[in-house]
Design a protein that fits this description.
154 residues, mainly alpha, 77% helix, elongated
Length: 154
Amino acid sequence: MKIFRNPAFLAAVAMTVLLSIYIGLVAQRAFMLLRSESWVAVLMGVALLVLPMIGAWYLAKEWRLGTTVQRMSARLEQEGRLPAFAGDPLPSGRLPDAAAEEAVDLASREVELAPHDWAAWFQVAWAYDAAGDRSQARKCLRYAAELFRKAQRP
């Protein structure tokens, strides 16, 4: 399968393994503190246990988003609708300013025409990413994933 040779996927797996080890070690220390007879140590154990729970929640949330994005891009690729932008990208992967602005404007117009279409939000997310606005791209991608999951429900 092609996904297992993808460097981004392998990096995500490596970071997941490292974060899981870290979460496990912190949780182990928290449980050690919880078994202590000192109330200060028990309070520290409770406080320390919150960190692994937040880390596990965040990890699950990011993997859910990643798998949803994979399914969306596979669907768009199958339909021949993957985002493509005019202009050659810079060595950084970004589009030149004029091409980036045009891509964002075009994709934004598609979203205005179909505000509940996950594919339109996917396109605008990729346009923002190509323009270098990763924060906005991530917000749009999260919304696209939410719409995609809703559309998949019976």
